[in-house]
Amino acid sequence: xxLLVRLALFFVLLPSLGSAVVGDSVLSGTFLAESKLGLxxxxxxxxxxxxxxxxxxRYEQALAQFRTVLETGQPVSAVEHLAVAHMYxxxxxxxxxxxxxxxxxxxxxxxxxxxxxxxxxxxxxxxRDTATALSxxxxxxxxxxxxxxxxxNYEWLKPRYSGKKRQPKPQKKAATAQxxxxxxxxxxxxxxxxxxxxxxxxxxxxxxxxxxDALQNDDLPYALARRxxxxxxxxxxxxxx
Length: 241
Fold this sequence. Notes:
mainly alpha; Serine Threonine Protein Phosphatase 5, Tetratricopeptide repeat; 11 helices; Tetratricopeptide repeat protein
């Protein structure tokens, strides 16, 4: 099953996370404690390293870096859960990917929620849960009608899902083949029965077949020819004695 996986937006989301925490480093008229500044610095650095690793296809390293963000961030945003879900998806670790996609709540921007729903639809397809997949693709489109991947997946899957289990088709070919064999055997037996009288009058099988082919469409000439052949055979035998 070929399905579209919308992950391109991930590259836009991660850089935006770094700027999203800048506000945490400013308090009205005061300075943050050194420990908090260090924590913010580590989180931003982890985001940066995770983004670089992801772009280079080093998904394990990207995930390890982003765990720092999850462990030190309170609370963890829906966008961060989406980023981690993408990393797990790339690693084909679908169970934790599904968990983090599910943590993207409906309170986030429609585009982000749509991406998560579409990804849950893809994961449902991997489980062969077509009904759930269609439902997730619908949710994705309701949240963001411009989600082309969700729309294409929905349009591709919908006509292939009837809600009923496929019934095995009757094996017509096997029955037809057996019938043809039976007919061929019967035809051969009939031909052999017709050839037997000619064998009894000292005709070769080839001669008998030629005569039979010439006369098989007309029963009367066939009977006359057989009687004439029998008569000639009897006369020839009498002369030799």
